[in-house]
Amino acid sequence: MKTILVIEDKTEVRENLAEILELAQYRVIQAADGRKGVELARSDRPDLILCDIMMPELDGYGVLHILGKDPDTAGIPFIFLTARIDPAQIRSGMNLGADDYLTKPIDDVDLLHAVELRLKKSQQSRSQSTIDGLAGLLEALQQPAGTSYPCVRFAKKQLLYAEGNGPMALYFIQYGQLKRVKTDPQGNTLITALSKGGDFVGLAALLLNMPYTESAELLTDAQVCTLPKAEFLRLLTSHPDIAAYFMRLLAIELTQRDERLLLLAYQPVRKRVAEALLLVQRTFYSPADAVGTDQLPPSQLSLTNPAMSLSRENWSQLVGASPETVIRVLGDLRTEGMLELSGSQITLLDSDRLARLKH
C-alpha cells in the first residue's frame, strides 16, 4: 500500500483529501503545518507528498526546499496545492523541483489521476533510472506538458529568470521565442542572445554554478519545460553522452557570445544592423534551423521569406545603438533594395548582400 503525506493547515481540506485517498486504498498521514510535514517526510518516507503553498511558520516552498536538499527525501514526488494558478508562483515551484500543481477546490478525479500518474512515473524512475541517455532526455522534454517534466506557458514579456539570481533549473523551450538581455548601471540594455523552440536556456550559469549574468525575457507566448538542478546534475554524472552534449552546447554558446561582443565593440552600426537582421532570420525564421516545428503554434511556423517582426526597442538592443540610428540605417538598406519595411515588419530581399556587409 502506497503512503501519501498530506500537508495542509486547513483541517477541513486536509481531512477531505485524506478521506478520498483512503477510499482509493492509499495509506495517508497528515500534517497541519510545514514543520510537522518535514518531520513526517523524514520519519515515514512517504511515496508522495501533497502540500499546500500558503501556510504559517513554514510554507510549501520551504518544505520543498528542505526536503530537496536531503538525499533521503529529494526523490519523493511532490505536488503543490494552491488556491490560484500564477505563472510566477508555478515557476518558483518548478525551479525547486515540484512535479505538479492542483488548484483548489480540488476535483476528486483530478486528485486521484495526478497521484496515480506521479506514483507511476516515480516507479518507472526507480526501475530505469528516469532517463536512458541523451535521446531519452530530449524525447522526454518534447512530450506534452506534464507527462515528463513540469511545463508552463508563459506570456510575451514575462521573465523566465532575472540577472543576479542563482540558477535552480535548466529550461527547455518547447515553443516560442526568447531574448537574453544584460543591463549596465546606466540602464542601457543589450540583447546577448536569442533562443527558440528546441533550445536550452540558463545552461552557463548552471554548469558554472554562478548567478545569472543576464535576464531571460519572452518575446512571444511560449511553453517552457524545467529540468530541476538536482536532476540535471544527476544526469550529467550518470550519462557521459548527456554530459558531452551539454559541454558542447556551452562551448558553442560562449564562442558565439565572444564573436557577438567583438562585433558590437569594433564594427560600425551599418554592419551591426546587417548582423542583427541575419541573426533574427536564421534563429527564428530559417526552416533549416527549425526544431520541433510540429509542436509550434501555426503563427510561429517557419516561412520561406517571412516578414520579421520585432519592436524598435528590441532592434535597438540587438544592434547596441539608439532606435533612431537603427531606423535610419534600415531606411538606407531599404533604399538600396536589401529589405522591405512595413510598420514593424521587415522582409529581407537580398540576404547575400547583407552578409557581405559584415565583412
UniProtKB/TrEMBL annotation:
GO cellular component, one term: cytosol
GO BP of this protein: regulation of DNA-templated transcription
Domain Cyclic nucleotide-binding: 154-242
Key word Transcription present: yes
Keyword tags: DNA-binding, Phosphoprotein, Transcription, Transcription regulation, Two-component regulatory system
SMART domains: cNMP, HTH_CRP, REC
Modified residues (4-aspartylphosphate): 52
InterPro entries: CheY-like_superfamily, cNMP-bd_dom, cNMP-bd_dom_sf, HTH_CRP, RmlC-like_jellyroll, Sig_transdc_resp-reg_receiver, WalR-like, WH-like_DNA-bd_sf
Pfam families in the cross-refs: cNMP_binding (PF00027), HTH_Crp_2 (PF13545), Response_reg (PF00072)
PANTHER family tied to this protein: DNA-BINDING DUAL TRANSCRIPTIONAL REGULATOR OMPR, REGULATOR OF RPOS
Protein name: Response regulator
Origin species: Spirosoma arboris
Lineage of origin: Bacteria, Pseudomonadati, Bacteroidota, Cytophagia, Cytophagales
